[in-house]
Q: What sequence folds into this?
C-alpha cells in the first residue's frame, strides 16, 4: 500500500506531500510522494490529509465498555466497588467478548493500533480472541484479585496465578506475535503480598510485562500504608512490581522518594488525565516525571471513567492539564505528548519497531481526513494532531500491514452488530 499525505513520521519529523509505502507487514519507504510513486508505481494507493503512526493506548479496560456512563460523577472507590466491579462480576463470556469487541472497535475507529488492556478476573480468554480477530496489536492480561474483593471476582492466590500461566502459554506471542501477555494484578488493595510476589515470579519466568494500577487516589494510598507500613510505590518496589517491564497506571499521589524509585527502576507510568479529572483523583506530576527521565505513556482507562477511548482527546487533556496545573503554557508541548502516545507506549509494551513511521518498522499507521472547519487551517500538523484532531477524523487504520479500517469503516468485524448486541447486554447489566 502507498499512503500519501502530510506524513507525521514521529514527534520531530513532518514531510509535506509525503508518502509511506508498506509491503506485507513492514514499512519499506518513508519520504516524498513523487519518489514513492516512482519507486512503487504499481502499488495500491490511498490518499489522506495526514498519515501518522498508529497510536498506543497504554491503559484501557476494554471489558468495561458495557459500563460507559454507568457511574458518572462518583468518587473512585465507590465507583469501583459499587458499580464497576459488580458489573464485571455479572458478566458471562459472551458479555465479556462483546464488551472487548466494542472497546477494540472504538480503538480501531479512532486510530489506536496498540492497546495495553487490563481485562477482568473471569473470561479473559474472550478478550484475547477478540483482539486477535479484530487485528489489533496488544498486551493483555487477566486481572488478579485475591483479597478484599467482591464476590464473583475474588479467587484463590494460586488459582489466579495458575490461570494467568495457562493464558501466557496460550496467548503470549499469539496472532503472529501481535498479542502478548502482561501479568495484571488489579491494585495493591485487592492483592495479597503472595499474589504480587507471585505475579513478579511469573513475569520473570515467561519474560512478560507486569501491568497494575498505582497511587491513583489518596484513599488507596492510605489503605496500602495502613496495611504494609509503606507508601504504595515503595510497597510495590518491595514485592517486585517496579522495573523496565512494569507499567503503573496513574501514579497521581507519589512523594519525592517514590519518584526516585520510579526513576531509578525505569518503571513506566501510564498517565490517564481524563480519568484522573473525571474521578477527581488529582493531577499526576507528569512534567516532573518526564524531567526525571521516567517513561510516561498515555491511556484512556475504562469507558466508565472517561467515557471514551479516543486517544486524541487524551493527548490534548494531558497537555492542557499540565499547563493549568503548573501555570506554565510551555508544559508538556505537543511533541512531548505525541511521543508518549506513540513510541514511549510501544516501548513500554515491549514491541520493537513500533510507534514511528520508519523504514523497516512495523506497518502500523493511520490516515486522517481534515475536511472540517475545526481542522482548518493547519499551521503546524503535529500540533493539529494533539490539539484539534478527534478520533472521528481517522478514516484508515493499518496494523502489521493489514487494513483494519478503510474509508471510515472497520473491516475486521461487523461494527453495527457489535453495537446492537452491546446495547442489549448493557441493559441487562445495569445495576
Ligand atoms: Zn484502570
A:
Amino acid at each position: 500500500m502507498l499512503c500519501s499525505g502530510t506524513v507525521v513520521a514521529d514527534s520531530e519529523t513532518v514531510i509535506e506531500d509525503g508518502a509511506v509505502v508498506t509491503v506485507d507487514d513492514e514499512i519499506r519507504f518513508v519520504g516524498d510522494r513523487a519518489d514513492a510513486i516512482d519507486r512503487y508505481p504499481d502499488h495500491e494507493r490511498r490518499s489522506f490529509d495526514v498519515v501518522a503512526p498508529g497510536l498506543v493506548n497504554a491503559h484501557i479496560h476494554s471489558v468495561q465498555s458495557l459500563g460507559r456512563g454507568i457511574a458518572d460523577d462518583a468518587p473512585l472507590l465507590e465507583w469501583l466497588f459499587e458499580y464497576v466491579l459488580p458489573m464485571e462480576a455479572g458478566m458471562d463470556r459472551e458479555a465479556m467478548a462483546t464488551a472487548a469487541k466494542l472497546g477494540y472497535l472504538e480503538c480501531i475507529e479512532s486510530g489506536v493500533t496498540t492497546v495495553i488492556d487490563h481485562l477482568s478476573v473471569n473470561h479473559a480468554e474472550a478478550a484475547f480472541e477478540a483482539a486477535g480477530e479484530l487485528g489489533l496489536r496488544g498486551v493483555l492480561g487477566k486481572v488478579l484479585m485475591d483479597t478484599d474483593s467482591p464476590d464473583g471476582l475474588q479467587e484463590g492466590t494460586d488459582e489466579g496465578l495458575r490461570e494467568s500461566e495457562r493464558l501466557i502459554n496460550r496467548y503470549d506471542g499469539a496472532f503472529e506475535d501481535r498479542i502478548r501477555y502482561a501479568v495484571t494484578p488489579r491494585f495493591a488493595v485487592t492483592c495479597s503480598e503472595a499474589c504480587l510476589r507471585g505475579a513478579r515470579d511469573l513475569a520473570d519466568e515467561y519474560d512478560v510485562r507486569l501491568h497494575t494500577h498505582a497511587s491513583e487516589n489518596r484513599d488507596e494510598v492510605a489503605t496500602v500504608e495502613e496495611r504494609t507500613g509503606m507508601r504504595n510505590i515503595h510497597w510495590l518496589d518491595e514485592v517486585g512490581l517496579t522495573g523496565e517491564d512494569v507499567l503503573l497506571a496513574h501514579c497521581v499521589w507519589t512523594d519525592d522518594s517514590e519518584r526516585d524509585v520510579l526513576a531509578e527502576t525505569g518503571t513506566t507510568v501510564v498517565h490517564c488525565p481524563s480519568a484522573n479529572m473525571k474521578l477527581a483523583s488529582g493531577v499526576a506530576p507528569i512534567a516532573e516525571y518526564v524531567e526525571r527521565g521516567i517513561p510516561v505513556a498515555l491511556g484512556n482507562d475504562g469507558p466508565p471513567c472517561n467515557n471514551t477511548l479516543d486517544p486524541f482527546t487524551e493527548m490534548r487533556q494531558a497537555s492542557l492539564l499540565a499547563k493549568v496545573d503548573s501555570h506554565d503554557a510551555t508544559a508538556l508541548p505537543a511533541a512531548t505528548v505525541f511521543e508518549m502516545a506513540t513510541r514511549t507506549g510501544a516501548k513500554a509494551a515491549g514491541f520493537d519497531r513500533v510507534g514511528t513511521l520508519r523504514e523497516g518498522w512495523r506497518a502500523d499507521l493511520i490516515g486522517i481526513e481534515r475536511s472540517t472547519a475545526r481542522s482548518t487551517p493547519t499551521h503546524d500538523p503535529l500540533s493539529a494532531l494533539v490539539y484539534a484532531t478527534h478520533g472521528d477524523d481517522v478514516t484508515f487504520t493499518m496494523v502489521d500491514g493489514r487494513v483494519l479500517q478503510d474509508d471510515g469503516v472497520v473491516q475486521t468485524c461487523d461494527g453495527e452488530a457489535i453495537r446492537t448486541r452491546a446495547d442489549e447486554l448493557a441493559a441487562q447489566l445495569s445495576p
Summary: The radius of gyration is 21 Å.
